[in-house]
Amino acid sequence: MRTRVHYAWVIAGVTFVVLLVTAGIRATPGVLMVSLEAEFGWTRTVVSGAVAINIALFGLLGPFAASVMDRWGLRRVVLGALALLGISVALTTRMQNQWQLTLLWGVLVGTGTGVTSMVLAAIIANRWFDARRGLVLGVLSAANATGQLIFLPLLAQLAAERGWRAAALLVAGAAAVVFVVVLVFMRDRPEDLGLRRYGRPHDAPPDTGPRPMAPMAALGFAMRSRAFWILAGTFFVCGASTNGLIGTHLIAACHDYGIAEVRSAQLLAMMGIFDIIGTTASGWLTDRYSSRHLLFGYYTLRGISLLFLPLTLQSGGSQLAWFAVFYGLDWIATVPPTVRLTSEAFGRENTGVIYGWIGASHQLGASMAAIGAGTIRQVTGDYQTAFWIAGLLCVAAGTSFLTFGRRTFSKAPAAALATA
User: Fold this and answer.
1) Share of the chain above pLDDT 70, in %
2) How many angstroms separate the CA atoms of 378 and 356, rounded?
3) How far is CA 275 from CA 30, 211, 319, 347, in A?
């Protein structure tokens, strides 16, 4: 007898497409940085400042987005975010002044992507899946890298051949297409279709657990737990070393060493290919092995690769390609075990909103690294110091899971919740 595909997999597919396109939109300023500098005379600090605002809002809006989705419906909120993104990016083709760059690429695009952030992946995985949650979360997290894979080389080629405005219009059009996909296929909860979560037994009692905490109440509760500070602190470093530093500045750093924009965009795309593998594998591993040990390995290896990146850039060629492979495998492999530890420490019903605050720390780290690395480049003339600082922070973050985290995450979540 033929088994019907559970609609949870359709929801996961739609969410993957949403995250893919919004990742492409968020990555666009990194491709356009040199073009904007050439046309308008804006320094990298100015462009990095707009990117920093974008990244900060991407994270800070996450916990509030989780609460709004719970109240107004996931489908309705995602549609609004996609409409805002499409209109804002299209309007960037008309900008002439720095304040317009800050408003459009910084505030409005940051707001739109903040709603369709990593929190969306956590909400979908917890709301629609009992089985295969780690794997689904890994695949959805990999959508951020897949967005780079699809968009960055094409955007760099368009910017080189037809100007940066053509690249901006492409991602605006992609947002419009995904708007239609969400309108047709997205649903808020399994119960809307008379279904249970994927993998939930038919004879299991209906969900009657408590509703998620409000964003500020969740933050107040989480801040009393050492688990939150370890997860938020290490995710701060994660954001600084990926979106903020490499995602924003690698193309510009390669340009400093005479490597063409198209070639450096291809390197980021290569990272995207291998991050699909790495993050999906991380989800599979998270379902089977200690999240603490996985995070120790991910952060430590990432830190070592950053410490050697200045030498790698000098050598270029195959050495830089190997860096792209190695770093790509580790790009956001941290997400599945971080979400798992969040769920274990604070309960399934609060995973979305508390992970939203942890994700906000990720993006604050990315924001500070985006503006900080741009400032270091302007003052010193290269990115070497920025790479070394990020590398040392990653090694420290990994070590924390074998020291502070060893006892912190051995406690039962019920005991932690009982103290709330």
Assistant:
1) 92
2) 33
3) 18, 34, 18, 28
CB contact at 8 A, 131 and 143? no
Residue type, 357: W
Cα angle 164, 170, 174; round to 5: 150
Separation CA 344–CA 205 (nearest Å):
21
Question: Which among 255, 296, 319 has a CA at the least distance from the CA of 395?
Answer: 296
DSSP calls for 20-56: HHHHHHHHHHHHHHHHHHHHH---HHHHHHHHHHHHH
> Residue 407 contacts by C-beta under 8 Å, 6 or more apart in sequence?
none
Cβ–Cβ under 8 Å, residues 397 and 233: yes
Can you give the C-alpha Rg of the chain in angstroms?
Answer: 20
Residue 246 has pLDDT above 70, yes or no: yes
For the chain, what is the largest distance between any 2 Cα atoms, rounded to a whole number of angstroms?
Answer: 68
Handedness of CA 37, 42, 43, 44 (dihedral sign): negative
Which is nearest to 387 in space by CA: 311, 301, 292? 311
Bridge partners of residue 198, in order along the sequence: 129
Q: Are 147 and 22 in contact (CB under 8 A)?
A: yes
* Nearest of 13, 127, 77, 111 to residue 363 by alpha carbon: 111
Please give the backbone phi and psi of residue 115, each rounded to the nearest 5 degrees, phi first: -75, -40
Cα(166)–Cα(138) distance, integer angstroms: 32
Query: What domains can you pick out in the chain, each with its CATH number?
Result: 7-197+212-418 (1.20.1250.20)
Task: Report the alpha-carbon distance of residue 253 to residue 246 in Å, rounded.
Answer: 9
pLDDT digits 0-9 by tens, 136-185: 877 887 786 677 667 877 888 888 888 889 989 999 999 999 999 999 99
CA distance 289 to 282: 10
In sequence order, what are the residues at sequence separation of 6 or more whose Cβ sits closer than 8 angstroms to the Cβ of residue 250?
30, 264, 267, 268
Per DSSP, the chain holds a count of helices (H) and strands (E) of 21, 0
Q: Would the pTM of this model clear 0.90, i.e. be above it? A: no
Average pLDDT of the segment spanning 67-85: 89
66: pLDDT strictly greater than 90 = no
Nearest one of 169, 151, 66 to 114, comparing CA atoms: 66
φ, ψ for residue 198 (rounded to 5)? -60, 130
Q: What amino acid occupies position 41? A: G
23 close to 117: Cβ distance less than 8 angstroms: no
Is-contact 138 282, C-beta < 8 A? yes
Average pLDDT, the chain: 83
